């Protein structure tokens, strides 16, 4: 029996489906972030069912006998479960609604509902097919307005266009299930996200073709290299067509060299003005807006860390903030920042697209801080760009410009290893647990300490990387 979930796995990667059906999936640890994602999905589903009852049922003018929540259907080979079926009194057909926690209809959703329509079409006369998803333009004011929180997207025509393709794909998926030898089934091309690494990518080299920047976006090129038997980045031929940036990465790796463009780094640093503020934000992005003026998945900045250098040789100063009350953090967040960050001097961040976007949004949500947020954005300097633009490149980065890849190479004395919170996604979920979860005082204190320690390391890491670069000039 092929379920809808099985089919979605097949669309993702045929070998992932094989691993599921042959119990070869790698066990995934349900950490704080994964639990957060599940909870987000449950929240949206709960609000979605409320939308069905409060908005659609009166609109359709149907009784409880003509609305089915979580119905299942199978035809002997395929099985699916729908979120909601509603008997349309005008057409005497069943309209299907699928509730999704995204703010848009994704490719996976189109194939998902087409598979469902094929299964349910055997037992129900289906009418129109809808995706009910969060409205990206909804802004909360007071209580959640359930009528505006969601958007209905009609996929009836899309499903009709995909029917033939999905009919073929689902029988191909059945063939995958019956295959004894997984090596005959196509593997995925994204090892970092693979749920069955030992099945998809046995003997994966430490630095592989899948690490080449943006190469997995071009499956044709990946498959061409795989067919030639070139999996290690060291084996990529000189005449293989790559972008200029990709070829540069391969060259650095194959020559095992460190490339430093001192002149360009120096010119970049000449733009800096003291005092220099090294800043990092942590934020939380709930699917359902928690406070007024927020939209679905708006980031809620709740924490910052700040290191200040008055000049290149001055003593380093550290300040920090974290919101622990069940309130919109922005006012306290920015008030605390204003107390220590003046209106002059450069603000160094790692990936200014994030902090810059948050500053702009905070100024929009709380207009009394708009001028200050604009001032901060005018002074941002992105330290990450030194590595993103290849001004400093090292094989050990493996083509990444993440601070967690750069730091151990330039400053091996600092490390995120062994920390209770060691990356942003877990920080986000941990803050939610600390402030809104069922945690006792001892747990709250531990989470607070872990969050402060993590965020402080982010800015200290920037300081030490900056100092290391300055030594080279």
Keywords summarizing the entry:
473 residues, alpha/beta, Lambda Exonuclease, Chain A, Nucleotidyltransferase, domain 5, 3 domains, 5-stranded mixed β-sheet, 15 strands, globular
Descriptive account of the structure:
The protein is about 45% helix and about 15% strand. It has 3 domains: about 1-180, Alpha-Beta Complex (Lambda Exonuclease, Chain A), CATH 3.90.320; about 205-255, no CATH class; about 265-470, 2-Layer Sandwich (Nucleotidyltransferase, domain 5), CATH 3.30.420. It is α/β, with parallel strands linked by helices and about 475 residues long. The strands form 4 sheets. It has a 5-stranded mixed sheet with strand order 2-5-6-7-8, with helices on both faces. A 5-stranded mixed sheet has the order 12-11-10-13-14, sandwiched between helices. A 3-stranded mixed sheet has the order 1-4-3. Helix 1 packs across helix 2 (about 15-20). The longest helix has about 30 residues, at about 440-470. The chain has helices at about 5-10, 15-20, 30-60, 105-120, 145-150, 155-180, 195-200, 220-230, 245-255, 260-270, 330-340, 350-365, 370-375, 385-390, 405-410, 425-435, 440-470, and strands at about 1-5, 65-70, 70-75, 80, 85-90, 95-100, 125-135, 150-155, 260, 275-285, 300-310, 315-320, 345-350, 380, 390-395. It is built from 17 helices and 15 strands.
